[in-house]
């Protein structure tokens, strides 16, 4: 069987046809509660919720690992990610300051000679 060559334009059209589903903020905790409290099987829950079979299992692991920050609301980050973003921003600022200081030092070194 011969493989088809990847067509970028065709893939863009396909992406336009497939809509990405947006879940409400309490959908995941409710799905986990459905499985845990009511004793519904994972396969049945995934069919009822119209998600892939492994998704409820993943949500249960996330909730078991860090219940307080398992499902952040849109726009909010988990504390570790927020700290990482802050550190990246600070690192970029420090790099700029270091470059400026290097240029100033080179300028004054050249001027003193």
Features:
elongated, about 110 residues, about 65% helix, single chain, mainly alpha, 5 helices
From the alpha carbons, calculate the radius of gyration and give it in angstroms. Answer: 25 Å
Q: Strand share of the residues?
A: under 5%
Number of helices: 5
Write down the overall mean pLDDT.
79
Structure description:
- The protein is mainly alpha-helical and 113 residues long.
- 66% of the residues lie in helices and 0% in strands.
- The chain has 5 helices and no strands.
- It has helices at residues 8-17, 27-38, 42-49, 55-65, 79-112.
- Helix 2 crosses helix 4 (55-65).
- The chain is elongated.
- The model has no long low-confidence stretch (mean pLDDT 79).
Please give a quick description of this structure.
The chain has 113 residues and is mainly α.
What does the secondary structure layout of this molecule look like, with pairings?
Elements: H1 8-17, H2 27-38, H3 42-49, H4 55-65, H5 79-112
């Amino acid at each position: 069987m011969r493989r088809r060559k990847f067509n970028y334009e065709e893939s863009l059209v396909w992406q336009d046809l497939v809509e990405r589903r947006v879940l409400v903020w309490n959908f995941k905790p409710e799905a986990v509660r459905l499985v845990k409290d009511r004793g519904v099987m994972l396969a049945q829950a995934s069919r009822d919720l119209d998600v892939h079979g492994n998704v409820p299992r993943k949500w249960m692991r996330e909730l078991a690992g860090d219940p307080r920050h398992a499902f952040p609301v849109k726009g909010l980050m988990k504390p570790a990610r927020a700290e990482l973003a802050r550190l990246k921003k600070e690192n970029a600022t420090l790099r700029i300051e270091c470059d400026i200081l290097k240029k100033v030092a080179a300028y004054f070194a050249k001027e003193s000679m």
